[in-house]
Amino acid sequence: MTGSAQDRFRVGIIGMGRRGRLLAKCIRLCEPEHKQQLHRQLRGLPAPIHWEAEIVAAADQVEQCRDEARAVLPDGCAVHEDPMRVIDDPDVDLVVVATASIAHAQWTVAALEAGKDVFCEKPMTTTLEDADRIVDAVQRSGRVFGLSMQNRYSFWASTVGDLVRSGEMGELAMMWCHEFRCPFWERPETNDWISDMEASGGPFLEKNSHHWDIFNGWAQSPAVRVFARTRDTGSHADKGDIWDCAVSTVEYANGVMATHNLSLMTRFGHNLEMGAIGTGGWAVAEREGDGGTVTFHDNLSPNQRVLRANLSGVGAVGHAGAEIPMLNHLFGCLQRREQPQTSALWGRESILVGLAAQRSADEDRAVELRELRDESRFPELMPDYAD
Ligand SMILES: NC(=O)c1ccc[n+]([C@@H]2O[C@H](COP(=O)([O-])OP(=O)(O)OC[C@H]3O[C@@H](n4cnc5c(N)ncnc54)[C@H](O)[C@@H]3O)[C@@H](O)[C@H]2O)c1
Q1: All residues at 6 or more sequence positions from 294 whose CB lies less than 8 Å from its CB, including other chains
Q2: Ligand 1, from 118, 121, 214: best to mutate by most atoms within 8 Å of Cβ?
């Protein structure tokens, strides 16, 4: 397909657990009957789906996952046990990697080396070595690689990003995030990998990588120092070795400071709030089912402005509707042969912050990002923070 514009993509998915199945449903929103249903959910607004794709193959090593996958895949889609059957399938253009996080690099690198484009779940990897392997494979293959960081494309996160970039917030000074959520769901059928520090990378990667990515994008400057503390109150007591509470601070090269609180203890209710304050004003974003709300407050007057996505119906798609703009962007980039906004380099930046936070908590000290960058095979490589 290299060199010629393509407008319909054939997709193969590796990892048909919860996320793989949700992504299959989201990708299939481009099919006429699903588009029509979304159109009704949006009370007659046109379904904002601008891609054309067909899922032609999938794989999962667990029989129960393969069985559950068939319910969400199109008739006739091949469902394999071995992921290499998807990668080697000449009918597949784009490989989606939605396995346990520890396996992302293995299947991503294999797919890129086989000449496929890749869309990979977050966190990009659980180690810096694996993040470097992906960065290297993207560069060597020249294929498109996108990371499934849907929050970057959400109404709420992109609206705050726009307020920062427009200058309306003045000079950005501080950012914050708190997420209070339930313990990770049990996954007995897939060995509860998510509660295992090694298989998941721990919550600083599994959960916070979304928020590090948003902080990094809003800050428009690389992180330089992280200090973090974790605590285990026993919410996951009977399984795994992950902690369930953390407080982190992140400092950026341009002087911006950020704080992050994560709790995995809240069995009822889920609260995710992120915000940013500059010399001109501050904005607080709340993720809600209808796409979210951003309230912008002027620092020097009582004025405030409430910006709402107000798209009842998109919440049913997942993550406050953010999967849709992410997939529109991904497939647009595939057509134009461009790296998506959530590229391998941006993915590696979020991994670096998460790894620094875990090292800080483990070693009870502030960790300079330079220390981790120096351990990388590509210490000088960074995304374009000013973009
Ligand atoms: N973008 C998001 O908001 C979001 C949300 C949930 C999960 N995720 C990510 O999606 C990925 C999958 O999460 P999930 O919730 O579907 O978990 P899951 O346990 O439901 O599914 C994981 C799947 O990976 C397969 N798998 C495990 N190890 C494998 C290996 N070595 N090789 C091939 N397949 C393997 C399992 O058989 C299973 O079907 C994780 O990386 C997770 O962090 C992202």
Answers
A1: 155, 156, 159, 160, 163, 283, 284, 285, 286, 306, 307, 308
A2: 121
Q: Which atom of ligand 1 is nearest to the CA of 151?
A: 3
Residue 99 Cβ < 6 Å to ligand 1? yes
Q: Tell me if 16 CB under 6 Å of ligand 1.
A: yes
The domains located in the chain, with CATH, are 9-150 (3.40.50.720), 152-318+343-375 (3.30.360.10)
Tokens of 59: 């794989």
Å from CA of 99 to ligand 1 middle: 4
- Cβ–ligand 1 distance for 10 under 6 Å, the answer no
Per-residue pLDDT at 256:
98
Specify the pLDDT at position 313. Answer: 67
What is the CB neighbour count within 10 angstroms for residue 39?
16
User: What's residue 374's pLDDT?
Assistant: 97
CB 201 less than 6 A from any atom of ligand 1: no
Give the residue ranges of the chain where pLDDT is below 70: 1-4, 312-316
Q: Which atom of ligand 1 is nearest to the CA of 206?
A: 43
Pocket test for ligand 1, best of 14, 16, 19, 23 (most atoms within 8 A of CB): 19
Give pTM, 2 decimals.
Answer: 0.96
CB of 244 closer than 8 Å to CB of 238:
no
Q: Which residues of 84-97 are buried (b: 16+ CB within 10 A; e: fewer)?
A: ebbbebeebbbbbb
Per-residue pLDDT, 4? 55
The pLDDT score that the predictor gives to residue 157 is 95
The residues facing 14 across adjacent strands are 59, 97
Q: What is the dihedral of CA 23, 29, 33, 37, to 10 degrees?
A: 100
Polymer length of the chain: 387
Interhelix angle 155-166/209-219, nearest 10 degrees: 20
From residue 116, give the alpha-carbon distance in Å to each of 47, 57, 301.
29, 14, 53
